[in-house]
Amino acid sequence: MNTPNTHDERKMRLQKLEELKTAGINPYPAKSHRVQTTKTALELADGETAVVAGRIMLKREMGKICFCHLQDESGKIQIVFKQDDGIDKESFKLFTKKIETADIISVEGERFETQKGEKSILVKKWTLLSKALLPLGDKFHGVQDEELRLRKRYLDMILNPEVREMFKRKAKFWQATRNFLIEEGFLEVETPVLETTAGGASATPFATHHNALDMDVYLRISMGELWQKRLMVAGFDKTFEIGRQFRNEGMSREHLQDYSQMEFYWGYADYTMGMELVERMIKHIAEETWGTLKFIIGEHGEIDLGQTWKHYDYVETIKEKTGLDIMSATIEEVKTKLNELQIKYDKVEAKSALVDSLWKYCRKSIAGPGFLINVPVLVSPLAKRKEDNPELTERFQPIIAGSELGNGYSELNDPIDQAERFTEQVKMKEAGDTEAQSHDKDFVEALEHGMPPTCGFGFSERVFSFLENKPIRECQIFPLMKPVEDDSKKDK
What we know:
Elements lengths: L5 H17 L15 H5 L6 E14 L2 E8 L2 E8 L6 H10 L5 E10 L5 E12 L15 H6 L1 H7 L1 H23 L3 E2 L5 E2 L11 E4 L4 E5 L5 H10 L3 E9 L11 E10 L3 H20 L3 E3 L5 E3 L5 E4 H9 L8 H10 L10 H13 L6 E4 L11 E2 L2 E5 L1 E6 L2 E2 L2 E4 L4 H16 L10 H8 L5 E7 L1 H7 L24
Parallel strand pairs: 3-5, 6-10, 14-15
Antiparallel strand pairs: 1-2, 1-4, 2-3, 4-5, 7-9, 8-9, 10-11, 11-21, 12-13, 15-18, 16-17, 18-19, 18-20, 20-21
């Protein structure tokens, strides 16, 4: 016997839909009258009344008895239909012939335990809540094709409840972040998503047009960095924001273009204070979200966030792993080393981008946990220079499993220095570096009114994906996907 294809299955379900309507059943009512979840129904004593609702995941008929598994967000429970035992013959027949897996129903009945000891509900009344016109698809269960699972994420979550559990953890992750910062005295703020100048990071922005004001604007590439610094000028001591930001650049296991980010700014603090706070914050988030500080992450194996966090010197680490002193090396020498290590790069890239590519190669072997420090001004246009070595900055980045999982600074508050660095960024942009920053004159003017010493730090949902040990796209509930081409249009 051939298994019907999706088209045939839908046709048969549409026919049953019409037959249900003819029988006087509304296939899409507004209310369910649910009283318990499947989880709380399982906790009822035998003989107690249960009223639950959910999706039929399994349906098995044995003469005048029908067994089903009913699933909701909390779990699943077995429901049992017995003809003439609470369910009359017509109602039993209607259910067995017209209702099938994937349909959503509610049932009212008596909690009991089967002979095999399975807690179940003996159904006395059932109501159709939503007739499914397409099957769940047994072949989809266990599918390893990431593209297919992400495109049909709703099926992925129906058939793989552990995926839903991951997104519950993600909600805990951000709530733990928010709770920690509020407890530390930070104020949550909201800053513009549309900006006339894309600032606060080195990244390519998405551009759009604002019709009402007739001007081009950009989707933000940072979580309000330059805006939150204005708040430091305004007199706030501690602020943070959690929201979406957008970068029009490449996709990888670790990078997306549309993702959640947190950034905080802390007046009268420097990067050493920031490192202490961030280490405590990440440990707190891990404990609250996963209940542990030990994680298996990629090829690095087990990483214990509870151990002493080391410090990794940017210049010294590159020198140790490649033999190149990036501070004295010329652009050609950096390119030569990149070629030697077979690291791809854009020929028009400035020295800063080339050095960054070299660092990304080196960091892969660092398991952490720890902080990257002593990053050159060359690759840190917004960080404050170190007083004992002006070529380096007071910048720090958490290093876990070979990747930077955040970025922090003693923020630059010298308006003259900031203006000069913006000017250099503009030159880089004109030379072809699409990720170089624009000159934000309004921000420089704000700095001229005086900003106190400030520590800023941010991390994205990449932290969550690393601790889950999954690609970041899998950790987004509905990641952006390229539309599937319509077959009906191919021949036109």
